[in-house]
Specification:
By secondary structure, this protein is an all-alpha fold. It has 20 helices and two strands. 76% of the residues lie in helices and 1% in strands. It is globular.
């Protein structure tokens, strides 16, 4: 038994193998630090991305920054799950924090959007372990039935970061310099002190019992997964420029398909040592829930990337204001997540929550598809609150469903799989929906200009702005959308067609997202609800070992 185990075992209560509330809270404190690091980064970036893209002159390629981060975090997630089942959660969690810190420091010194994308990719390697390992460790020490008691702590961290992140990100992005350093660079530098504190806290308190398993690591599976995902995500980002049927696009499709086939064959060959053991997919709950996770991630990330752009470009909000305007969504997530967690602990029933949640997200997306330049902010904020109530009932509950169904020996890889499929959906959603946005916005703006070409007010404003009129002689395509800062000083009458084009393109994204999430809403009705276990992962493992020992004794 490992040294870590010997430190914890004397404090375990009775023969049940369960940890005391004090022990659990000590471990939870360490996990909350790691979650704060990941959650704060996500929310800070949400309100700062537009400003960073403007500063680095790369508004139309901003998807690379998010996509690079999501690619590496997605691919590394199942690897963290498998390695943590083999080597233990603690060393992998410390590795994840260290990689995230290195990526943050390098991102702060980026001088182009492509450099930033590369460093965000390194950051993503750490992020892949931060979130998934938190849920795996929680599954180890807390039973599914009791998890709602502790869920509130993690939602408090998520909620705090959701409130502080956009405000801090907006403040940094809105400042020219802070202590002689460009304001936006502090979006990444702020992770450094938080990460260092997280390293020390986790190293001290995260002592979870672990029985080392002698397994090979499925590096070939990880390589095949990389070959499968990266080309498909690249073509999702570049397809509008290359042409969806061009030679380069077809080459990417082909490479991705080869990677998928190779991954499946390798996983079958590796058996129980596979990165994602195929036997898990024979479990109906595991398979269906991960399909739902993928589809939900697709629509959810598309929505969450488009809302800040709408608020900042169309409504003219500053990055800080944009962050504050999303508070209704944060409040909705907090309220629904904590409320559903308490009710699940009391009743042991969980299926109703993702059913209601996905219904609310679908409704919110279709309502978002109706917003425009003149939509009052209070209406948009109400819809965000509705979306938050939906998200809060889905994210934790779907992971709980998988953990409750998974064998204890596969807890790490099963939990990572849930995060993995949602991340794949998010990665594809970000690339595809931003591609939809920027591939349609040119035509939408052109149509908006056609609609006002005979408007006296527009013609008068055009006469008073000869430089802008000259720029329009080449059509709306001559507008430089890599930096939208020019809208701030533009005559409102001249700016309106541009804002209308952005709003209509955002509506297209929301409408497509609504249909995507509606698919998940239909699928969740087929999810079979099984009684929640009252044993933690550690207790279930001990029970399985006792049963195996008893069976062996009888056999002899």
């Amino acid at each position: 038994m490992s040294e870590t185990t010997s430190r914890v075992e004397p404090e375990v209560q009775g023969d049940s193998g369960g940890l005391t509330h004090r022990q659990i809270m000590t471990i939870v404190a360490g996990l909350m630090m790691g979650m704060l690091l990941a959650a704060l980064d996500m929310t800070i970036m949400g309100s700062a991305t537009k400003t960073i893209a403007d500063q680095l002159h790369g508004q139309t390629v901003q998807a690379w920054v998010t996509t690079a981060y999501l690619i590496t975090s997605t691919i590394s997630t199942p690897l963290y799950g498998k390695l943590s089942d083999i080597l233990g959660r603690k060393p992998l969690y410390l590795t994840a924090i260290s990689l995230f810190l290195a990526g943050s420091a390098l991102s702060a010194i980026s001088n182009s959007m492509y450099e930033l994308a590369a460093f965000r990719a390194l950051q993503g390697l750490g992020a892949g372990g931060l979130m998934s390992l938190v849920f795996a460790i929680i599954a180890d020490i807390i039973s599914p039935r009791e998890r709602g008691r502790y869920q509130g702590y993690f939602m408090a961290v998520w909620g705090t970061s959701s409130v502080l992140g956009p405000v801090i990100g907006g403040f940094f992005a809105g400042a020219d310099t802070i202590f002689g350093i460009d304001g936006w660079r502090w979006v990444f530098l702020v992770n450094v002190p938080v990460g260092i504190i997280a390293l020390f806290v986790v190293a001290k308190v995260l002592n979870v019992p672990h029985n080392k398993v002698d397994h090979r690591v499925d590096y070939w599976g990880a390589a095949a997964l990389t070959v499968a995902l990266v080309p498909l995500l690249v073509v999702a980002e570049q397809g509008r420029e290359w042409g969806w049927g061009s030679g380069r696009s077809l080459a990417m499709y082909g490479t991705g398909v080869i990677g998928v086939i190779g991954f499946v064959l390798i996983e079958r060959w590796m058996g129980d040592e596979a990165l994602l053991p195929l036997r898990l997919f024979r479990r109906p709950t595991f398979s269906l829930t991960n399909v739902i996770n993928f589809v939900m991630g697709l629509g959810m990330f598309g929505m969450m990337m488009t809302i800040p752009l709408y608020l900042q470009i169309v409504k003219g909000a500053t990055p800080t204001e944009s962050g504050l305007l999303t508070l209704p969504m944060t409040a909705g997530i907090l309220t629904a997540s904590m409320g559903s967690g308490i009710l699940i602990s009391k009743t042991g029933r969980y299926k109703r929550f993702p059913v209601i949640g996905l219904g609310l997200i679908t409704a919110a997306l279709f309502l978002f598809a109706q917003i425009g330049v003149d939509t009052p902010l209070w209406k948009t904020m109400l819809i965000m609150g509705l979306a938050g109530l939906g998200l809060g009932q889905c994210m934790q509950t779907l992971i709980l469903s998988i953990q409750n169904d998974a064998p204890p020996r596969d807890m790490g890889v099963a939990t990572a799989a849930a995060t993995f499929f949602r991340s794949i959906g998010g990665t594809v959603g970000t690339a595809v929906f931003l591609s939809i946005l920027f591939s349609t916005v040119g035509d939408k703006i052109a149509n908006a200009f056609i609609g006002v070409r005979n408007d006296p007010a527009f013609l008068a404003a055009l006469q008073q702005n000869p430089q802008f009129a000259k720029g329009l002689q080449g059509g709306s395509s001559s507008l430089d959308l890599n930096n939208t800062e020019f809208l701030k000083g533009l005559d409102p009458t001249l700016a309106r067609p541009i804002l209308t084009g952005f709003a209509e393109s955002a509506d297209t994204v929301f409408m497509v997202g609504g249909f995507v999430v509606a698919v998940a809403f239909v699928l969740v009705w087929f999810l079979k609800e099984t009684p929640l276990s009252t044993q933690s992962g550690i207790q279930r493992t001990a029970s399985d070992e006792q049963e195996a020992a008893a069976a062996a004794a009888i056999a002899h």
